[in-house]
Specification:
3 domains, single chain, Aminopeptidase, eight-stranded mixed beta sheet, elongated, Glucose Oxidase, domain 1, alpha/beta, 32% helix
């Protein structure tokens, strides 16, 4: 995953254009079944219009001595994304009106966009702005717009059932590791895990890599009927590379299988934060919207907007960690292992409690009833073939890894 993040880091991705195309080509090389779905520029998707393709070759600001005091090629966040082309001298007073900065970190360059309104601007740190001492500056943004396509990558792994598990992440952010190249790497790793371990999976798995907001809206405009018919549960994934906390963003009413799946894995984590749909911020906004109402929850480590490095150049390769990525992967590994288990809906084979003592699953001495013995008996007490592993975890207050361990033991002993 770290290799993927490094490979994709220095690319000026926006919601359309060549860098998005290159990113999807890279993902396709890693996951050969990736299909590219195209939406024409200026076409309609619900209440939205697909913008023209935007590309940028260069951007800089020079002082009166010809010295570059801002260079896009050295920091890809130093321009407002989707800026119109500009090439002219400008006064310091007018330039300051076009410069955006981060209020909280004096050394940070922020990430700013203008996708749906014609505008141009630059991004600098507070400290850089303090060094502006010329009366006028030469500004150059060598960008272009053209009719083309917005592109979405879709990977579909068909299972024996049509019911689907859905994963979505966005690929439109440039040079920010946690938000959101880490999530692209994570989805690729989940796909590879499925290909290695569940060649003949029970469920169908669908992964999308798309530009945030407009990408999910376009995708839903084309695929909504199939998604509503087949989706069992789904996840909107972002900001998964740090190791500070775990975050669940619930579906609109917090009552979907996706909500209980994430909670079953993370419920006993001391650094878990559970947010309602009121704290939504990524594509769960679209997947759970009234009339769409898909069973999708958001997953992050530190949630977007909650870490100070968010949407700045301080969200760099040093901010993420191997541990953070691995722990994020393990969340979905556990969920997939549970779903693919033959005992996802465990059902007792006996009427009344089975004799666990003769099977070596509890002490044959009559004494205080506690510990693992009690957990195992409680697991069996709710193994009625109607409650799934996620629900049983919630009822008997264990996490999903424990439930999988108990389920496997009981299966070995032919009790469920």
């Amino acid at each position: 995953m770290l290799k993927i993040i490094n490979d994709l880091f220095n690319m000026p991705r926006s919601i359309t254009g060549e860098p998005i195309r290159q990113t999807l080509k890279y993902i396709k090389n890693k996951t050969l079944k990736l299909k590219i779905i195209k939406f024409k520029s200026r076409s309609k998707a619900f209440d939205w219009t697909v913008p023209d393709e935007w590309n940028i070759k260069d951007a800089y600001i020079k002082d009166q001595k010809g010295k570059k005091i801002l260079d896009f090629k050295k920091n890809l966040l130093s321009i407002v994304y989707h800026s119109i082309p500009v090439k002219k001298w400008i006064s310091k007073k007018d330039l300051l009106k076009k410069i955006h900065f981060d209020e909280t970190i004096a050394t940070a360059v922020p990430y700013v966009t203008t996708y749906y309104k014609k505008y141009w601007g630059f991004c600098m740190s507070k400290n850089q702005i303090k060094k502006l001492n010329s009366n006028k500056y030469f500004v150059n943004i060598d960008s272009s717009f053209k009719k083309g396509y917005l592109e979405v990558g879709e990977y579909l792994k068909k299972g024996s059932q049509k019911k689907e598990v859905f994963f979505s992440t966005y690929i439109c952010h440039p040079s920010m590791a946690n938000d959101n190249i880490a999530s692209t790497a994570l989805q690729i790793e989940i796909i590879k895990y499925l290909e290695r371990n569940y060649k003949k999976s029970k469920y169908t798995y669908r992964f999308v890599f798309l530009p945030e907001t407009i990408g999910s809206i376009c995708y839903l405009s084309k695929k909504l009927r199939a998604l509503k018919k087949n989706m069992l549960l789904g996840f909107a994934i972002s900001c998964v590379g740090d190791n500070k906390q775990y975050s669940i963003i619930k579906s609109r009413f917090g009552d979907k299988l996706s909500d209980s799946a994430l909670f079953s894995v993370l419920k006993n984590k001391k650094n878990l934060k559970v947010y309602s749909y009121l704290d939504r911020g990524s594509d769960e906004r679209q997947y759970c919207y009234p009339g769409i109402d898909l069973p999708v929850s958001g997953f992050c480590r530190s949630r977007f907007h909650t870490f100070k490095e968010y949407h700045t150049d301080h969200d760099n390769l040093d901010y993420i960690s191997k541990e953070g990525l691995n722990n994020s992967f393990n969340v979905f590994k556990s969920i997939i292992d549970a779903l693919e288990s033959k005992n996802f809906y465990p059902k007792n084979k006996f009427l009344c409690e089975p004799n666990l003592g003769k099977r070596g699953l509890m002490s044959t001495l009559g004494k205080k009833f506690q510990g693992k013995n009690k957990v195992t008996k409680n697991f069996l007490a709710y193994s009625d073939g109607k409650k799934n592993l996620f629900e049983i975890c919630d009822i008997i207050k264990i996490n999903l890894d424990e439930a999988l361990f108990i389920s496997n033991k009981l299966s070995e002993k032919e009790l469920i």
